[in-house]
């Protein structure tokens, strides 16, 4: 199993790996996020919940600098987003693209998760190959490593994107509906993998339509409604209040940002 890094031991309370303050986003001139505050601590699992159009995926993309803020600020590992460069510490699993990249092999896509660990044009090292092998094994796709991504089922493609993020061995793992299209058996495998990462100090921010098999791992639920935080607290304490705010039909996935799929994040 893959193990992530925690923050170095310190004298006081650990600093958040992700801190967002007053985050607001407009798309097409319309407000999508309105004054969102969010913090994620080392080793914490935070679930973003909410109905269709509540702003969950937009918030994730804003936190990673993939959509501009109209107001507010984001810090990653204590560094303002505009100056953050340590992308090797961040793993991102976007919603599965409706169209898989033609010709890409499974091993190549997973291997792209290691690009931030070495300088441009430097061949993969033994450590990179080992990380890719571990990630493929973790999502039960070792036997499909040489296959084209396009021939895999939707659930298998989703597992490839998860493996790509795992191969990076991140300190912060951000997942946008990672269980969509994934069968129950492999959802349980993913839960076990994430449990190992969290035990080693990796922070997880996950967008969920349905808490499902990941519920046992979630420390906090943050429910969005119309672009605002409606509820924020331990999942168990949200209780019956969770369902009216978090309800809503499943929505179509956004396209995968190509810079995250091939491992090159341009800032």
Automatic annotation (TrEMBL):
Superkingdom to which the source organism belongs: Bacteria
Signal peptide span: none
Gene Ontology MF terms in the entry: ATP binding; ATP hydrolysis activity
Coiled-coil annotated spans: none
Pfam family for this entry, one: ABC_tran
Keywords: ATP-binding, Nucleotide-binding, Transport
Keyword Plastid among UniProt keywords: no
Domain ABC transporter intervals: 18-251
TM region(s), chain numbering: none
InterPro entries (alphabetical): AAA+_ATPase, ABC_transporter-like_ATP-bd, ABC_transporter-like_CS, Metal_Ion_Import_ABC, P-loop_NTPase
Similarity annotation: Belongs to the ABC transporter superfamily.
The protein's name in its UniProt record: Zinc transport system ATP-binding protein
Organism of provenance: Friedmanniella luteola
């Amino acid at each position: 199993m893959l193990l992530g890094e925690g923050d170095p031991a310190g004298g006081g309370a650990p600093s958040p790996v992700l801190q967002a303050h007053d985050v607001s986003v407009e798309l097409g001139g319309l407000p999508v996020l309105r004054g969102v505050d969010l913090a994620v601590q080392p080793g914490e699992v935070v679930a973003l919940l909410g109905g269709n159009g509540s702003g969950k995926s937009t918030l994730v993309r804003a936190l990673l600098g993939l959509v501009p803020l109209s107001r507010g600020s984001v810090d990653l590992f204590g560094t303002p987003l505009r100056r953050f460069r340590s992308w090797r510490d961040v793993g991102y699993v976007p919603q599965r693209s409706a169209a898989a990249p033609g010709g890409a092999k499974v091993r190549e896509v997973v291997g792209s998760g290691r690009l931030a660990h070495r300088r441009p044009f430097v061949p993969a090292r033994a450590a990179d190959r080992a990380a890719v092998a571990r990630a493929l094994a973790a999502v039960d796709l070792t036997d499909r490593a040489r296959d084209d991504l396009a021939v895999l089922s939707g659930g298998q493609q989703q597992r490839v994107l998860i493996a790509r993020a795992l191969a990076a061995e991140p300190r912060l793992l951000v997942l946008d509906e990672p269980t969509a299209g994934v069968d129950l058996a492999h959802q349980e495998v993913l839960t076990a993998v994430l449990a190992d990462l969290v035990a080693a100090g990796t922070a997880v921010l996950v967008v969920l339509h349905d808490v499902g098999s990941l519920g046992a791992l979630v420390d906090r639920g943050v429910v969005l409604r119309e672009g605002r935080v409606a509820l924020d607290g331990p999942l168990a304490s949200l209780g019956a209040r969770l369902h009216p705010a978090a309800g809503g039909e499943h929505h179509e996935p956004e396209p995968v940002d190509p810079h995250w799929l091939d491992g090159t994040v341009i800032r």
